[in-house]
C-alpha cells in the first residue's frame, strides 16, 4: 500500500465506529492532501453536516464549495444526498431536467430514495464515482482530472461493506444493459489500486472489535485496505516501573493502593503534606491518588493489549494524538494540528 498521501491514491474512503472521530480524520486527511498542492474534494453522504461543523462553515450543499483557503492547494466540500444524485442522474443520462423537477414536486424522488435503501447507496456511490472520474472541462482523454483526490467521510463500520459493495449486488441482478455497465464501472474503481479504505478506531474494546470485523468484511469483498488510524492516542503518565508497581496487588489483597504492599500509604501522605497538597486528610487523599494511579495503569495495560490486536490485523497503523484538553479536532484549529500529524 502506498504512503497515506501518495498522489496515486485518488479516492480515500474513511470509515470507523461512531464516536471514533472518523469525520475529523477525513477532514484532516483532506486538508493534509490539499497542503501538498492538490485539489481535493471532501464529501459526506450521511446528511449529518459533520464537515460543516468541523470547518465552522454554513451547512454544505450538493454542489462543491470551498471549505477554507489552503496555500498552494484547494479544499472543497460537498454534502452528497440521494435526491440530488438522482436528479443529476436523470438530467445527465435522460435529459429530464424539467421532468425531473416535476417528479421532485410530486414527491416521487423522495419516495424512490427512501423506500429502497439499496437505491440510495447506488446513487451516493455513483456520485462519488463521478467525482473521481470527471476530468477538467468535462472532457475525456488525457486532460487532468477535476479533483486530484476525493476523500469520502463514509458510513460507519457496521454499514461500510454493504455501502461500498451495493453496486456489485446491482451488477449481479442486472447482468446486461446500462445499469450493469454503470455498476461494473463503479466497482472497478472501488476495487482498484487508486482507492484506499481507511478504518478509524480508538484503543477501546468495541471500536477495536468493529475494526477487526470491518477489515475482515472489506477483505472478503475484495476492497483495497488503506490504513488503520488509531485516534486520540494518549501517552502513559507513568514509566514502566511505576506502571508495574501500580498494577501489583497490595498486601491486604485489595489492589487499591491502601494496603502495605506495593505502596507506603503513610509515606505518600507525608510527602503530600510536605508539598502542601495533603489537604485536611492527607491519608485519604493519598489513598485516592493511588486508586487513580492504578486505574491509569490498568487503562494503559489494556490499551497495549488492544494495540497488539490492531497490529495483528496486518495493516499499517497510523497514530493520531489526543489533542490538549481532550479536543478531538472540532475547535481551536484541532483539525489543522491533526493534518500536520498525518503529513
TrEMBL record:
It holds the Pfam family ArsA_ATPase. Gene3D superfamilies: P-loop containing nucleotide triphosphate hydrolases. It comes from the Bacteria. InterPro entries: ArsA/GET3_ATPase-like (IPR025723), ATPase_ArsA/GET3 (IPR016300), P-loop_NTPase (IPR027417). Residues 11-184 form the ArsA/GET3 Anion-transporting ATPase-like domain. PANTHER family: ARSENICAL PUMP-DRIVING ATPASE ARSENITE-TRANSLOCATING ATPASE, ATPASE RV3679-RELATED. This is ArsA-related P-loop ATPase.
